[in-house]
Task: inverse folding
């Protein structure tokens, strides 16, 4: 089957092993001085290890691979390592919005009579977004109220409220997403629009993605479902470029909305390559 798995560039990999803790499933090991994907079956394709790699050697790719097996991962790799590793695995699934895998894991735990405290630990936080790990994916809340129009000669203010913003790196249940109005922006929009920070971003939480160049669109759908159902976001504004490849982002939002338990209003805003708003419409 075609699915998302991790690809490691051996020329860029330094063998630092910082990616290993980011993969509680046990899909990664350091062999002969390089990180290796030792089993496709244990790679869930969520990309937690990508944000841990300081050399940029890891990325998600779509290729032929055996299906990820959550129950097998638990039985052969996770449970035997104890509650700390089990909690890390559950937290990993929760923070990356892997709702289906998380439900399957909890069902396995209940079926096999495994003590449930690890799930309580997972809900208590302490994941890569709140503590250690790669600084580029560490969760930060700026609490910005919004950007003001610049006075002549001054640089415009940023309306960014949080970090990170790339959809693969964000935690769907981060505090700044809970009950927020989400702006899901195609990568190019902020560069095309001179008023991105003053007109479109103030008061909103942000996630960015490129439906043409990013891999793992099914992971994006899972994260958006988690933002809707677990993060309880209020609304979604999808900011797209007029180019055809941008429509995939709207498709991901529509699929997520159709599969989520909650219903949220969705607005689509289309931007020209010169930064003009060509149209706005409610689509959900």
Result:
């Amino acid at each position: 089957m075609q699915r998302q798995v991790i690809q490691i560039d051996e020329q860029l990999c330094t063998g630092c092993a910082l990616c290993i803790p980011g993969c509680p499933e046990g899909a990664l090991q350091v062999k002969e001085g390089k990180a290796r994907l030792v089993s496709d079956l244990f790679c869930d394709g969520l990309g937690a290890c990508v944000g841990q790699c300081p050399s940029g050697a890891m990325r998600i790719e779509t290729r032929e691979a055996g299906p990820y097996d959550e129950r097998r991962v638990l039985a052969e790799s996770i449970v035997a390592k104890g509650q700390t590793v089990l909690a890390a695995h559950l937290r990993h699934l929760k923070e990356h919005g892997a709702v289906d895998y998380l439900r399957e894991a909890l069902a396995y735990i209940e079926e096999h009579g495994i003590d449930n405290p690890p799930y309580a630990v997972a809900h208590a936080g302490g994941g890569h977004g709140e503590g250690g790990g790669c600084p580029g994916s560490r969760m930060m809340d700026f609490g910005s109220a919004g950007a003001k129009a610049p006075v002549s000669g001054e640089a415009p203010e940023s309306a960014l409220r949080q970090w990170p913003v790339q959809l693969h790196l964000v935690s769907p249940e981060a505090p700044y997403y809970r009950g927020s109005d989400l702006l899901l922006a195609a990568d190019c929009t902020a560069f095309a629009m001179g008023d991105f920070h003053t007109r479109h971003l103030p008061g909103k939480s942000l996630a960015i993605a490129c439906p043409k160049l990013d891999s793992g669109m099914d992971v994006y759908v899972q994260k958006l479902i988690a933002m809707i159902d677990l993060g309880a976001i209020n609304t979604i504004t999808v900011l797209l470029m007029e180019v055809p490849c941008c429509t995939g982002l709207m498709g991901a939002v529509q699929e997520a909305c159709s599969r989520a338990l909650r219903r949220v209003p969705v607005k689509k805003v289309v931007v020209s390559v010169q930064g003009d708003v060509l149209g706005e419409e409610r689509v959900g």
